[in-house]
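Need the bound structure for pyridoxal-5'-phosphate, inputs here:
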Amino acid sequence: MPGPSTTAVHAGHWQDDSRAHTMPIFQSSTFTYDNVEHGQAIWRGDTPGYIYSRVGNPNADVTASAIAALETMNLDQPAFGLMTASGMAAVSLITLSLLKKDDTILSQHSVYSSTNTIFREHMPSLGVNADFFDGHDLDSLDAALARNSNIRFIFIETPANPTMMLSDIEAIAKRAHAIGALLVVDNTFATPILQQPLALGADIVMHSTTKYLTGHGTVVGGAVIARDAGLHDLFSKTLRTYGLNAGPMDAWLTYNGLKTLTLRMRQHCENACQIAHFLEDHPAVGEVYYPGLASFPQHELATRQMNAYGGMIAFELKGGYDAGVALLNNLNFYTLAVSLGTVDSLIQHPASMTHFHLPPAVRQEMGISDGLVRISVGIEDAVDLIEDLEHAFEVLEMPANLR
Ligand SMILES: *Cc1c(COP(=O)(O)O)cnc(C)c1O
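Answer from helper R.:
Posting the output first, comments after.
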């Protein structure tokens, strides 16, 4: 079985009559037939061919099959992928395909904010029940399983934002299957290079390909990979009916990103490990949330479930809100932006940026303190990233009027 780098470079190969070395961009809304009989054969499925780009496009198909190949590297069974217009379109595809009135979803508390909104607000408005548990606590899941019925799927995200808390995929898959439910894993933070949920028992994996899979910050996109061909057919029908498909150009950019995914993840992880240790030793820093640290409460699970510990770090500044603002304003190599998984390092201070509109008490409830900072560690040289932080920490030590 080929390794991850070989799979990333070679999976989803495209060849057509042009003999172009790299996959062309099929920027076309519709596709043509030689004659009526040819068209009919394609519509019937007797001859391979494309009809209309909402229904299928070569760029989306090749990219989806490459992601599916990466997600099944350790599984002697194929899986089936679909590219969606965004990570949220992937969540929409899963929920719209699987749920009907009176069904129940069990989701861990800490999921991506818009996923949370779909589960908490939109699904109940359609008559679907949603209940929540702590992803890191199997007792909390067992309690949620005991108080609900008609559970269609369990949804987890691991590692989860912002504290990198992990969920035990294998243990949760067993519980899902014991009651005839499916397990859905949002694998955006880990990527298939670090973690393969399908091999651990999950039924469906989704991604925001906006992040590591594309890797260069050029696309908003998503993907859904299912182990079961029947589920794939169901998802395909929803995708083309609701129009949740990815555009050809976006799929093509993701396809090119995949080729360097293994290399990039190696560097993201190595850099993050060094930075996490630097932060842990720094007097201005309180708690550091990084699964690779021995002090991380779920370090053992991270080692068991993941090949490496990822490129995302969160940490607490002892100086609180003002320290967060001063730190971010004194960095050179960290871009101030939301999102994650790009080749450049991104830094985010939720209390002054994404969550500034919330009262501090509400933020605290969400686990977002005033001094919490999140870094998406890029692939720059670790020594430069650390020196940059060191310098910014020195500024923090100055009196506020001299900063
Ligand atoms: C970004 C993100 C999403 C949403 O993806 P979009 O591409 O922004 O729609 C979902 N889950 C996780 C974990 C994410 O980081």
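Comments: The two ends are 56 Å apart (CA to CA). The CA atoms of residues 355 and 363 lie 7 Å apart.
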